[in-house]
Amino acid sequence: MPKQSKRQFHKTIIKVTVLSEEPYDNTDVDQLAHDITDGDCSGEVQIVSSKVLTGRQAAKALQTQGSDPDFFGLTEDGGDDEDTEGGEDNE
């Protein structure tokens, strides 16, 4: 089994509640922030959960989101790629 990264990654789930006079169906984060700070909506932001992920868990979570594990300098099985600073080959 390949070596897993020794780095830690973090997964945070954030819940946003919007109150508006009309149905609200926007999912663009920038527009959402504008709407609840400068627009016609009221909003509440809460951290629902936060946990530390291993390299393997982070690689899988990135793939689930449609991102590449290389976004964090990881291989598909959660190891550090060769060019990652702080990786096994670069310490």
Structural topology:
Elements: E1 9-19, H1 29-37, E2 42-53, H2 55-64
Antiparallel strand pairs: 1-2
Structural account:
With 91 residues, the protein is α+β, with helices and mostly antiparallel strands. The chain has one domain. It is built from two helices and two strands. It has helices at residues 29-37, 55-64; strands at 9-19, 42-53. A two-stranded antiparallel sheet has the order 1-2. It is elongated, with a radius of gyration of 18 Å. The mean pLDDT is 91.
Keywords:
91 residues; alpha+beta; two-stranded antiparallel sheet; 25% strand; elongated
Shape type: elongated
Instruction: Report Rg.
Output: 18 Å
Q: Approximately how much helix is present in the residues?
A: 10-25%
Order of strands in the sheet with most strands: 1-2
Summarize the biggest pleated sheet.
2 strands, antiparallel
Strand-residue proportion? 25-35%
Rounded mean pLDDT score:
91
Summarize this entry quickly:
This protein has 91 residues and is an alpha+beta fold.
